[in-house]
Amino acid sequence: MSDLAELIDSLERTFPHAVTRTANLGELTTYRVGGSAAALIRVVDNETLDRMLAIVGGSEIPMLMVGRGSNLLVSDNGVALLAVQLGEFFTTVTVEGSSVVAGGAAKLPVVARTTVQHGLTGFEWAVGVPGSVGGAVRMNAGGHGAEMVDSVVAVDVVDFRTGHRTIRSAAELDFGYRRSNLASHELVVGCQLGLAADSDGQGRERIADIVRWRREHQPGGQNAGSVFANPDGDSAGRLIDQAGGRGMRIGSAEVSTKHANFIQVDDGGSADDVVELMIRIWELVRDVHLVDLRPETRLVGFDPSRFPWVS
Ligand SMILES: Cc1cc2nc3c(=O)[nH]c(=O)nc-3n(C[C@H](O)[C@H](O)[C@H](O)COP(=O)(O)OP(=O)(O)OC[C@H]3O[C@@H](n4cnc5c(N)ncnc54)[C@H](O)[C@@H]3O)c2cc1C
Question: How far apart are the CA of 295 and the centre of ligand 1, in A?
Fold first, then answer.
């Protein structure tokens, strides 16, 4: 039996209610297409986390941390790994002075609104990003001229490979544009943000403006936000649009007519259609603009040899 199968058996014996075998991962993503993981474990509290770490810690099984699935596309064929998702316990947000401590599963829009209610500024941008704090740290999510690295002070991280839980400073995470050095076996359990007092008291207005801007410029439906990262000094949406990609369709997946860097997929559609469309767009932009785009969406369980981009 493989290490993965043995560990799933062991986790299931210890946490019979927290482990789901052949868990539908696609359902946990905002694309709402794609296949399943070998198993999913929901971490209900710190005690579960400690016991889980005692079982999994030190192994080299393939793992995937799942936040709100707003930046994930999972292969239709599924993927042989253990998926991990934090539960309600990890959604708390506490504010003391200008310091905000948020659980890894806290929703970004909730954190954004809470900070404004406490008279703080610097996190309003996150109101339009439908992810979790953990996913945002991993991705160094950002928008409207700000990103996580601007406010992250320290991050509580569990490393299932070493079996250790440590507090890491922002500098240790080596944040870059939509990236950090966190690996697939590292779970962000919580995060401390340092914000500033809102001296002009315009936080609520800034939140309302951002929400309005998002409604006007971004589509709803089944998507995962920006498909490609913006190249230096340019916008992936503009490049795709000018290359004629807007509205392009493959099977159940279509380049949004509202924002050319978004792909929308039909209800009951397929992740394979999304990836095929991504490849088609990538080739189009390279042919027309001589620019190699880099995917922003995390692709899980696909054969990387079919991708024209450097994974
Ligand atoms: C409509 C829409 C608008 C969006 N707008 C923006 C935007 O303006 N700016 C932007 O940056 N992004 C945007 N996104 C993308 C997405 O919301 C962000 O990347 C977000 O930070 C992902 O968080 P998540 O919890 O959904 O992570 P997931 O999609 O679940 O995961 C993303 C990555 O983070 C990892 N991960 C998730 N949770 C954890 C955790 N607790 N610990 C460690 N790793 C974890 C995953 O393994 C994966 O590698 C948008 C998405 C949508 C659907």
Answer: 13
pLDDT over threshold 80, residue 2: no
Q: Which CATH number fits domain 220-306: 3.90.550.10, 3.90.78.10, 3.30.420.10, 2.40.50.140?
A: 3.90.78.10
Query: For 252-311, what is each residue's pLDDT tens digit?
Result: 999 999 999 999 999 999 999 999 999 999 999 999 999 999 999 999 999 999 999 987
DSSP-derived secondary structure for 185-248: TEEEEEEEEE-EE-TT--HHHHHHHHHHHHHHHS--SS--S-SEEPPTTS-HHHHHHHTT-TT-
CATH architecture of 3-86: 2-Layer Sandwich (3.30)
Please give the positions annotated as active site. Answer: 178, 226, 296
Instruction: Spell out which residues line ligand 1, taking CB within 6 angstroms.
Output: 30, 64-72, 86, 104, 129-132, 134-136, 138-139, 141-143, 182, 186-188, 218, 223-225, 298
